[in-house]
Specification:
The protein has two helices and four strands, in the order E-E-E-E-H-H. The longest helix is centred in the last third of the chain and has 26 residues.
């Protein structure tokens, strides 16, 4: 492991797997959102942006398929 950055509060360490670990000066590792905030502020990682449009387009297509099937089911009962 290689120390990337060290300050008064924590040390940022790069692992062999090219991931980062954040270790506080008291010896405890920092995880979760706090770790993400630290790595973002140092510019070591970027957060991917979620793509919401494909999920919204799939819903109307399913509704249209259901709407097409419904009249076909009603025609035989009308005769």
């Amino acid at each position: 492991m290689e120390v990337v950055k060290k300050n008064k509060e924590f040390s940022i360490i790069k692992k062999k797997s090219n991931r980062y670990a954040v270790k506080a000066n008291n010896g405890q590792f920092i995880n979760g959102e706090e770790k993400t905030k630290i790595l973002l502020s140092e510019g070591l990682i970027t957060v991917p942006v979620a793509k919401a449009k494909p999920a919204e387009e799939a819903a109307p297509a399913e509704e249209a398929a259901v709407a097409e099937e419904a009249p076909a089911e009603q025609e035989p009962t009308a005769e």
